[in-house]
Each structure stands twice: as C-alpha cells, then as structure tokens.
Amino acid sequence: MVAEILAVGTELLLGQIVNTNARFLAESLARLGIDVYYQTVVGDNLRRAAAAFRQALGRSDLVVSSGGLGPTEDDLTREAVADALGLPLEEDEAARGVVEAYLTRRGLPLSGGQRRQWSLPRGARALANEAGSAPGFIVEQGGKAVICLPGPPSELVPMFRRHVAPYLEARPDRGGVILLRVLHVSGVGEAAVEERVRDLLSGRTNPTVAPCARPGAVSLRITAKAADEATARAMIAPVEAAVRERLDPWVFGVDEETLEGEVGRLLRARGLTLALAESCTGGLIGHRITNIPGSSDYFLFGAVVYSNRAKEAILGVPGETLRRWGAVSRQTAVAMAEGVRRAGEADVGVATTGIAGPGGGTPEKPVGTVYFGLAAPEGAWWHHRVFTGERETIKQWAAQEALTLLRLYLAAPRTLDGFARRWDG
Amino acid sequence: MVAEILAVGTELLLGQIVNTNARFLAESLARLGIDVYYQTVVGDNLRRAAAAFRQALGRSDLVVSSGGLGPTEDDLTREAVADALGLPLEEDEAARGVVEAYLTRRGLPLSGGQRRQWSLPRGARALANEAGSAPGFIVEQGGKAVICLPGPPSELVPMFRRHVAPYLEARPDRGGVILLRVLHVSGVGEAAVEERVRDLLSGRTNPTVAPCARPGAVSLRITAKAADEATARAMIAPVEAAVRERLDPWVFGVDEETLEGEVGRLLRARGLTLALAESCTGGLIGHRITNIPGSSDYFLFGAVVYSNRAKEAILGVPGETLRRWGAVSRQTAVAMAEGVRRAGEADVGVATTGIAGPGGGTPEKPVGTVYFGLAAPEGAWWHHRVFTGERETIKQWAAQEALTLLRLYLAAPRTLDGFARRWDG
Using CB atoms, which residue from A52, A302, A314 is nearest to B343? Predict the structure, then answer.
C-alpha cells in the first residue's frame, strides 16, 4: 500500500506556517509500514486542489489530506474530493453531530458557514473531532481511500491517533511495519561518532543506520522493515547492541528521551540535589532542567550571573579571581560551581561562563569560548570548549555540554576524568 | 511567473525532519512577488525525482529544489534535473572550486564521492556555498529555470539570500511584489484582538489582514500585493495605522522583532537594569532576555528559585509569607521581585511563581496558576493568571506574560495599572 500526503492551504504556499502535519503523518504512516512516495501542498483553489487529489489517487492507494475542512468559503477540501471522485456532496448526520457537539461544548451558536462542514462526499464516513468543529472523513472507492483531516495540529493529531490509525491497522492490504529506534549521543562529535560506527552505516539495507547531528548531540537512527513489530524489534536489537558497544558511555537516551530527563532520572536515583550557575547560557540549562515534571525534587537553585558583581555577591567568586583570570576562565567556572553549590545548599553545582557573541571576543578567547565547572563532594572538575555559530547556537551547544558533564559525573565517573579535568586548586 | 517548490529527500517522506526549507522558500518567493501553486516532496529515487521535476516544469515557470546535492550515492538531484531537461552531466570548473574551497577551509582531503558534486547539467551556473561543500546551481531552458539548493537550512538560506534572490529580482518576467507586515500583540487574548479588528479582517482583498495565535502572543499579518514595493508599502500603511489605533499599547513589535528585544531596547533607552526571580518559568525568561546580543549591559542577575529554602536564603522572602500565603501567591511574587531587585542591585525586579504541572495543583490553585511580581523605584505590582496546557506551554505563556508586564512598566505605565494591580503591602 502506497500513500500520499496532501496539504490544502494557501498559508503553506505563502510560507506563513511550517507544514508540521506532513512530518507527523509521514512518521505515523511509516510506523504503520505504509510507504509514502510523495507529499504535496496545494492552495485553497478548487480546480488545483481537485487536480491534486486526482493525481494522488492515480499514483497512490491512500491519500491523507490536511486542511480545508473549516466553515469558511476558503475551505474547499470537501468539494475537491467530491470532484476528484465524481461524487455529489450530501448532508451527513454523523458529521452534523460532530459540529453540534463542538458548539454545545463551547456554548456557541450555529453560524451560517458551519452547515458546509457536514456536507460530505456521498458514502463518506465522518470522523469525530474532540478538539475543534471540523469533522474529518474517510471515503473509499475502487479499493483506494481518501482520508481528510482538519489543518490545526491540535485537531489532526488526536483524530489520526483515535480514528485513522485503527482504520489503517485493520486494512487487509497493509504491508509490514517500519520500526525506528533512535539512539542519542552527546559528548563526542559527529565525525568521531561516524568513525566508530562507519561499518554499520554503509552496506546495510535492513535495518539501516543513519546519523543526524544537532548542536551538541548526534542521533543514530536504526530503521527496520518487517512483517510485524516483533520481527522488526528482533532485527533492531543486535544493531543497537553493536552501536552501544562502540559508543558507550556516550549514549544518553533513546527515541523521545532527553538529556535533561536522563540527568533528572540519575539525580533522583542517587538522591542528589543540583544547583546551577549560568553566565553565557543565560537560564537555558535551568529552563531545560525544569521542563521535566517533578524537577523541583532535585533542582534547588539556579543563578544567572551575567554581571561580575552578581558573581561576587551571590556566588562568592573572589574579586581577585575575576581580576586575575577574567570572568571567562577555568578558575571562575570552578569558583562559580563551588559558590552556587554552597549558596543553593545542593550536592552538585554546575557552572558555565563564556562568550556567546556576537561581541566580546578576543584573540585569546574568541566568541564561542566556554568554560564549564562542576563541584561535588568528591571535588571539582573543569572543561573547556570553543563553539562556532550564532549566539543562540552557542548557547545551545554550551547547555548541552554542561548537561553532558553532569551526566558523566552521575553515570560514568571514570569517563568524566577523560572528558573534563580534575581541579587541583 | 509561477514557481514550484520541490524537496528531494527520503528523510522528509519518513517524517524524520520537518520541511522548514519549504516555508523559507515559500515566504521568500512571496516577498519577491512570485506565486507558488504547488510544493512537492519526493524521495531519493531517480525515476520519481526526475518525474517530479518534469511535472513541475510542465506547470510552472520556475522550480526551486532543496536537497540531494551531497557527495553520496543517495544524492540524485543533479541526475534528476539532467534527466528531466534532457541534458548531459558535465564537470563544472566553478562547482569544483566551491567544493575545493570548502575542503581547504576545513583542512579536509578530497573524498571519492565529492567529484560527483561538481558534475552539473550542461549550461548550469554553479552557486557558491559559504557554509558547506555542496554547490547549488541554476539551469535555464526555454524561458524556464530550475534552481537547485542544498538541503541543510544553514546552507540553503544564505545561498538563497546571496545568489538566488538577486537572480530572481533581475528576471524581467517577475510580476509585482507581495509584501507582508506582521504586527505582534501581547497582553490581550486572541478573542479580544479579533473583536477589536473584526471589520479589518473580513471583506478586504488587498491588503488582507489575518490573525495567528501562539502562547501569549497574537500576530496580525497584513499582506499587500502591488506592482512594486513602494506601492505595497503605501497600501499597508493606513491598515497598519488602523490596527495600531485599536490595539495600542498592546502592539510590541513588527516582523522579526521580539518581546525580549523590545524590553531590552526599552531598558537600554531608559538606562535601567533588570533582575529576575523565576520559579515556575525555571530560567526561560533569563534565556529569552539573554538571547539578545548586548543584554549583559542591562541584565544583572537571575535567580531560579525552585525551593522555598532558596526563596528565603537568596531572595530574603520571609518564611512567614511562604507559610501563611504559600509559595504560589501574590505576596510571595512581590517579595521575590523585591528580593531579587535588592540581591541583584538592579533598578527593576520581575518574579514568577506558579504551578507548571502536571502535578501540584489544588482546587484553589489549579495547574496553570501563576502569580507575577514587579518591583521598581515607584513601587510594586502584582498580576495573576491561570493558563491551560502542557507544562512547557504553561512555562511559555508565563514567560510571555512576565515580559509583557515588564514592557508595560517601561513603555505604558498608565496601562500597567489596568493590567496589573498596585501592591499596597
């Protein structure tokens, strides 16, 4: 079964919004083992939209569309599908129920255009919408199917999960499954990762292994295609083991797992508390740590100390250290980590100090220079990197590196001594 | 002139990445007055990619593609374009120069596949790539043009701006321009914004006005189509004035301007310094403030005080206040703002304290409850909101609302007294 994803919406053609629905639908169809050969975007124009549905039905078994199901005259998907399939539009009782249920929930009156929302191509099955007014629908014809979903992701995603995925899973002509497993690595660069797993990257067809880099993290995606999920899982397992063997202890998570989530899990498991002193990262590390529900159990205090005055007054960094070595130095980074650990009465203190740019660089300390400090009962460590990129990219790299330092302290103390250096005062 | 955007990449069909290039290209072409009727995504498959280029050339004057220009065997855009145009591939000296310049900059040796990167369809003009190894190219045929750009946005965006935009601006068959102007509003909800500008939203065809909402901000997009930029600007001006008249003082910026940038501009203009006390926002406000280059001039100190102990020890919030009113209360919010103003030796202190969820809510203070405090030489203010959504959404709303409170203090003190309440101890 081959599917095609078709988005209807002039706002996409004008570049006013990003087509995140296409990514969600593509990934969801891949997980169901359904191949997608084309994605198309067309505007709110009946002739071109109908032609796009006709073309998609000509070359694919399944067309999944997003958008164009609202109450206004711009919303033309119902008409376009009816035209492409040669079917009349008819009022549908179930669709009417979806619209009316929405209006009742919101205490809203029926507006004129809403009547259009329950006119569906003859034979269509309406799909309930828990988050908005627009009914989705499925029409089948000659073994093919058109599935039309509303444009807002907050409506499309639950409608797909609740109504479309079960429909597709039940279709007898569905092939096998495509299973993805993504391993996340930090603390080693993209080139070093690729070198260690080069033989796994090339020459394999199923499962395949492919790398993908973001600031401070490399992901390795293992993709297996099989008749069922258990077989795909069994195919992925040995490849995952091989990747882990070469990249331990740098693999910090899988699939949706994050570095801040893993750090939180480790702090909680070891009963340790954390304090952060951020200069160049400006609060980004605290923001990421506190994105994890329950982080108040282990995260006690974060100090964003942009000024030298705050570094001295709040963290007790000696004025002498700042004058002699500068705010961007290993000495200051360690003093900040020790100071915030003390001020926050935490078990572990982590600090960043650097130059995010675009101004402030010098020949000795160019833009992108960042020093990291970590203070713990066992002693202190420091680490140094020079990142390249725009201000926000440097902040992202630095936050990722600081969390990596903390993760190694918690999970792999032996590796920590190779990654960072012990502070001997 | 009608253009089509074509992305080549199996990773898009599998939903592994979002097609942000399509948004950038669509918006850039719209700004140049070039209509886009279709966007297409096709995988790394020579037959289907060539067919997609052939179809695009059949119905559009200009095809702009992204992806498939790398050195590996999956990178098939050069072959697909040559096939679609019936041209042979030939080694191109300029393209070779682009690849070699990249290798020299990075100190890398030539790898086998890279030779493929300088084989272009006969007659193509190579485009330099300042950020990567892949040359882009333009081929013209029969009055139509194909423009091929590399997939990574960090390479595609500068290549488009430096080489493609000037090429398109110089084309004699370009129509008029489409000019967008986006006004950003915060502090009033979407429904209230729409109510105030309802008559401007409907019934207009040129310029049009359309709203778009994100957590804590509503944008109004004014779009004008005209023969040239000056005319479009003149058409937008009265509509913008009408929007501003109805929404002042809630309009905080235009186009790429941000609330944190505007707050920074105002602090700098008034010579004031800032300190932040963040509980539920966890560092997000500091992160946003420090995304602005030069923010170290006015941002002195941020305290992320997740624990009550830190609220007392670092900010001097009285234990009695925390016990009597709770950490999530107007009393604590004001005490935090006053405390961080004092501890950071800043002119203005801003504080957030709330329940980001998913746990921690009570019937009186449900998840999403956030109190805000602002302390300044003239006195203190507090503000209260209950947001809905996931943890990260609530953090985003709360950060936006805190920055709005600060902006009103700096720019519209009279409105501040309606938005927030004066603290009278």
Answer: A314
Report the CATH number that the domain containing residue A89 is assigned in CATH.
Answer: 3.40.980.10
Q: Report the 10 Å Cβ neighbour count for A142.
A: 8
Say if residue B162 is in the same domain as residue B196.
no
Last residue of some domain: A169, A193, A216? A169
Please indicate if any CB of chain A lies within 8 Å of the CB of B182. Answer: no
Residue A220 and residue A272 in one domain: no
Q: Kindly state whether residues A281 and A230 are assigned to the same domain.
A: no
- Cβ proximity of B76 and B49 under 8 Å: yes
Q: How far is A414 from chain B (nearest CA, A)?
A: 31
Q: The complex's ipTM?
A: 0.82
Nearest to B282 among A210, A223, A286 (CB): A286
Angstrom distance (rounded) from CA B396 to CA B164: 36
Phi, psi of A367, rounded to the nearest 5 degrees = -50, 135
Tokens for B15, please give them: 């939903």
Of B36, B41, B358, the CB nearest to A39: B41
Give the CATH number for residue A354.
3.90.950.20
Q: Is B303 on the interface with A (CB under 8 A)?
A: yes
The residue type at B145: A
Query: Could you tell me how many CB contacts below 8 A there are between chain A and chain B?
Result: 244
Q: Could you please report the per-residue DSSP string of A37-59?
A: EEEEEE-S-HHHHHHHHHHHHHH
Answer yes or no: do B67 and B101 share one domain.
yes
Structurally, chain A folds into a number of domains equal to 3
Nearest to B48 among A37, A39, A295 (CB): A37
Q: Do B293 and A359 touch (CB under 8 A)?
A: yes
User: Do A190 and A105 share a structural domain?
Assistant: no
Same domain, B49 and B185: no
Q: What are phi and psi of B49, to 5 degrees?
A: -65, -45
Q: Is B26 on the interface with A (CB under 8 A)?
A: yes
Which among A25, A41, A299 has CB closest to B38? A41
Tokens of A310: 């705050």
- Please indicate, yes or no, whether residues A369 and A298 belong to a single structural domain of this protein: yes
If we measure between CA atoms, which residue out of B19, B156, B221, B66 comes closest to residue A12?
A: B19
CA triple B336-A271-A258, angle to 5 deg: 80
Which residue of A44, A212, A296 is the best one to mutate when testing the B interface, meaning the one whose CB has the most B CBs within 10 A?
Answer: A296
Contact B301 A303 (CB under 8 A): yes
Q: What is the CB neighbour count within 10 angstroms for residue A344?
A: 30
Q: What is the pLDDT along chain A (425 residues), one digit of tens a residue?
A: 899 999 999 889 988 889 999 999 999 998 888 889 999 999 999 999 999 999 999 999 999 999 999 888 889 999 999 999 999 999 999 999 999 998 888 788 887 778 899 999 999 999 999 888 899 999 999 999 999 999 999 899 999 999 999 999 888 777 778 888 999 999 988 888 888 998 898 778 899 898 877 777 888 989 898 888 899 999 999 999 999 999 999 999 998 899 999 999 999 999 999 999 999 999 999 999 999 999 999 999 999 998 999 999 999 999 999 999 999 999 999 999 999 999 999 999 999 999 999 999 999 999 999 999 999 999 999 999 999 888 998 999 999 999 999 999 999 999 999 999 999 87
Q: Please check whether residue A276 is in contact with residue A340, taking contact to mean a CB–CB distance below 8 angstroms.
A: yes
Q: Which domain holds residue A216?
A: 177-254
For B296, nearest residue in chain A (alpha carbons): A306
Which of B211, B226, B254 terminates a domain? The answer is B254
Contact B290 A303 (CB under 8 A): no
What CATH number is given to the structural domain containing A186? 3.30.70.2860
Contact A221 B30 (CB under 8 A): no
Q: Which residue of B has its CA nearest to A181?
A: B16
> How far out from the chain centre does Cα B217 lie?
13
> What global pTM score does this model have?
0.83
Nearest CA-CA distance, residue A292 and chain B, Å: 8
Looking at the fold, whether A249 and A278 belong to one and the same domain comes out as no
